[in-house]
Write a structure and sequence with these properties.
37% of the residues lie in helices and 18% in strands. With 230 residues, the protein is α/β, with parallel strands linked by helices. The chain has a single domain, classed as Alpha-Beta Barrel (TIM Barrel). Strands 1-2-3-4-5-6-7-8 form an 8-stranded parallel β-barrel, surrounded by 6 helices. Helix 7 packs parallel to helix 9. Bound molecules: SN-glycerol-1-phosphate.
């Protein structure tokens, strides 16, 4: 595997269903972030994914597709994130969709580019929480999911997904204590430098999403705040 999880401190996540100007996209790509993820929950279409891909490709920043549906999978990205939703109540989101994808695409899959994420969705109001029929885990559950991600599934990433709301730093700290080989990715509700730094104290990687669309200047400042910690 040749991906550079060890060096990914900060990632931006762009939602293909949301508009972004060329100027803002250029600023994101040239910000010093370690990679740009393309991923969303609702209304993700192949056209919109391809549009973002071609515009990001004007820059040298690595580009990742976080797969949300089979219809919008396309070659051309540097990496592919495949979520397995560990706190879903339905096996479909943990295993069955991935199983179907393997059946269909196995021969064209390059495992140097594929990174499987153990996802734990921790905001009950998030669209992804509802869509994937999650149940809300308590802190001990989350810690145990992280432990399973590392020891049972040996996943490269455990993703604490608070999408849309700022998470609990103490729980992020506890989860990090469990993980030695699996990288901890934190995403959700980061609205400023301080929060980006606070989560990066514990997580290996922080992801900034919505802030791109609500306050571009603040979003850009999270990059420096995190990169300066290295
Ligand atoms: C979403 O974890 C990312 O998948 C980032 O969350 O959009 O709340 O920043 P926000």
């Amino acid at each position: 595997m040749n991906y550079s999880l060890d060096n990914w401190n900060h990632l931006f996540k762009l939602d293909p269903a949301k508009e972004i100007s060329d100027e803002d996209l250029d600023a994101i790509c040239e910000s010093g972030t370690d990679a740009v993820i393309v991923g969303g929950t609702d209304d993700v279409t192949l056209d919109d994914v391809l549009d973002l891909l071609s515009r990001i490709r004007r820059h040298t920043v690595p580009c990742i597709l976080e797969i949300s549906n089979m219809e919008s999978i396309t070659p051309g990205f540097d990496y592919y994130f495949i979520p397995m939703v560990m706190n879903s109540t339905e096996k479909e989101w943990m295993m069955d969709i991935q199983h179907q994808a393997i059946k269909e695409y196995r021969d064209s899959m390059n495992w140097d580019e594929i990174i499987v994420e153990g996802y734990c969705i921790l905001n009950e109001e998030a669209k992804a929480f509802k869509q994937t029929k999650c149940s809300m885990p308590d802190d001990d559950d989350v810690v145990a999911y992280a432990y399973m991600a590392e020891h049972i599934f040996q996943l490269p990433i455990f993703y604490m997904e608070y999408s849309g709301t700022y998470g609990h730093t103490e729980l992020v700290r506890q989860v990090k204590e469990q993980l030695h080989n699996t990288k901890l990715v934190y995403g959700g509700g980061i609205e400023n430098n301080f929060q980006a730094r606070e989560m990066k104290e514990h997580a290996d990687t922080v992801v900034v999403g919505d802030l791109i669309y609500t306050d571009m200047n603040k979003a850009l400042k999270t990059v420096k705040a995190v990169q300066e910690m290295q």
